[in-house]
Amino acid sequence: MRTRQLKSFIVLAEELHFGKAAERLHMQQPPLSRQIKALENELEVMLFKRNNRKVELTEEGAFFLQEAKAIITRLTAAQHTLKAMGNGEAGTLRIGFVDSSITERFVITMGRFKDQYPKVIIELEEKVSVEQVAAIGEGSLHIGFIRTQLAKTHELSHINVINEPYIIALANNHPMAEQETVSVYELAKEPLIFFPHRKNPGFYNWVLNGFAQYDLMPKFGFEVERDQAAEMFVAGGFGYTLLPSTSCRMGRRGLTYKRIQEPFLDLRISMAWNPAHECPLVNNFIDVFKQQAG
Length: 294
Description:
Elements: H1 3-15, H2 18-24, H3 29-43, E1 48-50, E2 55-57, H4 59-86, E3 90-97, H5 104-116, E4 119-126, H6 129-138, E5 143-147, E6 157-171, E7 181-182, H7 184-187, E8 191-194, H8 201-212, E9 219-223, H9 227-235, E10 241-244, H10 247-250, E11 255-260, E12 266-273, H11 280-293
Parallel strand pairs: 3-4, 3-5, 7-11, 8-9
Antiparallel strand pairs: 1-2, 5-12, 6-10, 6-11, 6-12
GO cellular component, one term: protein-DNA complex
Domain HTH lysR-type: 1-58
Keywords: DNA-binding, Transcription, Transcription regulation
């Protein structure tokens, strides 16, 4: 059964006249008759009642008309979708991220991409940087927003997204809250509200190394899973926490944010992708991201 046969059948079912149907199809009547006969033979049913005066649909023909129209509609939609996928205008885009990469720019880029490419489905997956690099390499992620200090990206293409220092959050009534900056040597004496090692070993060890460069070891306080929980404990006077400097723009009631005097830790986020797996879908997202940066 061919698409051409289905379209011819639909036109004849609408016209109920071989001459008029052939004219609409820009073909001669005999070839049309042969197409319909071949279709009936394949289906093993009579689709039309024919006599010298008129052509009528049989009961089977009326049923098959609805099915044929549905098939053509689905086929046409599939053709449009395949074309859109080839142009990167449809399909599924899988993006990995770390929590600190979710900035205003990230959200605006997502919104603009969805506006420009409404047929694309975006799947977001929160993964630590090392896991993202592996997933991008094997192709299960298209794009990742990763901490470049914590994962090797030699085989990936990437664009720098964020480069900013870490700061600390203190309770407003903390003795160091009146200082303009706080020394890392002072911080080592205060409880650090932080997440457990098992959540992200690479980042945890990176923070340890930040203290170790000054021959210091942090004094850990409560362990929490999220920055929001850490900030709540800090506001309650249980210690301090480390946050990217942009976090202070949001500001939480009861907290003050301070810069660290010494060179300490910087947040570096890059958008990474595998050049070996580049496709129009990925390139379209990269273009929108660059437009937003501009």
